[in-house]
Input
Amino acid sequence: MTIEHRRSTIKEVAQAAGVSTQTVSRVINDRPDVSPETRQRVQGIIQQFGYQPSALARSLIQRRSYTLGVVTAGLKYIGPSRTLNGIAEKVEELGYSLLLKELPKFTANNIVPILQSLLSRQVDGIIWAVPEIGENRAWLEDQLPEFSVPLVFITMAPRQNVSIVSVDNYLGGRLATSHLLEQGFRHIGHIAGPLDWWEARQRMSAWKDGLSEAGLEFQDNHWVEGNWSSASGAQAVEKLFEQYPNMDSIFVANDQMALSALNAAHHKGLMIPEDIGIVGFDNIPESAYFWPSLTTVHQDQYNVAKVAVEEIIKIIESGWQELEPIAPKSIVLEPTLVTRQSSLRL
Amino acid sequence: MTIEHRRSTIKEVAQAAGVSTQTVSRVINDRPDVSPETRQRVQGIIQQFGYQPSALARSLIQRRSYTLGVVTAGLKYIGPSRTLNGIAEKVEELGYSLLLKELPKFTANNIVPILQSLLSRQVDGIIWAVPEIGENRAWLEDQLPEFSVPLVFITMAPRQNVSIVSVDNYLGGRLATSHLLEQGFRHIGHIAGPLDWWEARQRMSAWKDGLSEAGLEFQDNHWVEGNWSSASGAQAVEKLFEQYPNMDSIFVANDQMALSALNAAHHKGLMIPEDIGIVGFDNIPESAYFWPSLTTVHQDQYNVAKVAVEEIIKIIESGWQELEPIAPKSIVLEPTLVTRQSSLRL
DNA sequence: CTGAAAGCGCTAACAC
DNA sequence: GTGTTAGCGCTTTCAG
Output
């Protein structure tokens, strides 16, 4: 089986087999109405020519490309790339292809051309895997009603009439906070993610609510905002120690920043978890090998992605079979707490 | 500007504007031979209809899709996803689209269908971003001669008549080893990556050569093989300490495994870098915040990717303009050493 | 069971 | 400047 330099066409195959192009079409589409002999002969020629039908021509006439568009941003971060990983695997598994667009910035606002580009290539659906930040969902309100293909969002605040698959970030924050309380920590600080991120806000609210339900006072200098990076975490933790001298533990909004918190504690000569307990968020693979190993909230981005793909393909297929349209819904997956040395003092 | 539910066609625009489809075509392609008035009228209708030409139909007739195929594997790892990040950004910048295929395994052997699928969608070129492992380049020998579109590989051993963009892994390994020697370490162990990976072998050879050029003996129990993960690094370093008791430093083939080496040293109560020096490879962003901060070899996967995209597009465009074909070449980028606390004892 | 005709949405090549 | 014809590679529809 070789890949011909000049790809052969259905016409050439038909001529060589002495049949019409429709007959070849029937063979490659496994239609029943071809005599066994004809089918065999045609298949022989197909093999011999290394013939492969043009997905392009097919998409054009069938109005269906078996291709999904995926829009992402910040692939250099672990979260988005893990998500893309899940999408790519699941899509492949279900026999679709993937057209990838990466936004130059998380908050890119001229998304119309991106969408146009995807639609002009006849994608059957679009997965929007860009985190919800600031006003970067504003376009949704005007555009969605007249949108021509199914659209599924990954990780954003629930909305009416939109299909969404998310991890419950609020629950994750609650798990982290409760755990620290159970371990006897009473002065829990927080290093937040950038608060224009929906996810960061969710985690922070959970921390606040966790404190207040435990009857603990919350002050504005008990938390500092970071930007997810280890570098920002280093700055944040420094400031937090200053602002909150009797702090005995920190819930950090992601593992990279938590790493810096561990690092800062070492520099100060503090013992972890005796002097200061630390809990992260994400459960990146390395977090089990931090020093000490990091307690963190496990969120399965990979699985979120797979569920999103299943959902959109379900919607696509149902539309194509003219079945009942599937109502948009929010699917929320639950994170879990992974307890390790950085917080366990009981 | 709205996205119409039913996408309009060139024919509809032509009718509405009272011209032929050809004229509309000229307008959307910015051809000069249209009168200003006609052009304006047509553009008005285009705006009004929200008309967007079908990239599919265009690709079909022009035999050119302005789409690149990219084949990757192991997106859950930092390296491949960083590479994809660079590819996606550069491709976007140059006005192309990206069709993404992720192999289920690094060593998947039935790559013909993958290639077929890409070619059947008329990609203008393919970037092969799967690491070279075991025999997973075997297909190249038979297939390449008759390959119909440009193909550029990222990170593999140089070969005749193949376009390749790589980081010089051997040089990286030499930088790491020399640095440890300069710092006065004389008993340098090595935690290798999986040796069916070309990159892992390069790094290891450099370590061996570095030792022997310094007149140091090398023994087979001075190194252990890992699989890039922190978990494997933890096992490897344990074994290495056993096998090589008077070891005073380790060159670890990537940062994740180096993290485990740091961790193991802490557990053993060893001081870093006084008792044991450690150097990693990759320079992941977190490595600056390990405890202590990690000396490592910086390889710019992002830049490799960008160069690869530039190269393939250069080849594509030249082919299309019927210029001199661009000869395949190997482009090798140089890594640099980033010195931090884990190895600096002078 | 098989083929001929028409056309998906667009553009190349030519006419006028 | 503009329109007509033909056709990219395939499938749909309908005739036989």
Summary: Residues 9-11, 21-22, 25-26, 29, 53-54, 56-62 of chain B lie near DNA strand C (CB under 10 Å from a C1'). The mean pLDDT of chain B is 94. The first strand of chain B starts at residue 67 and ends at 73. The longest helix of chain B spans residues 301-320.
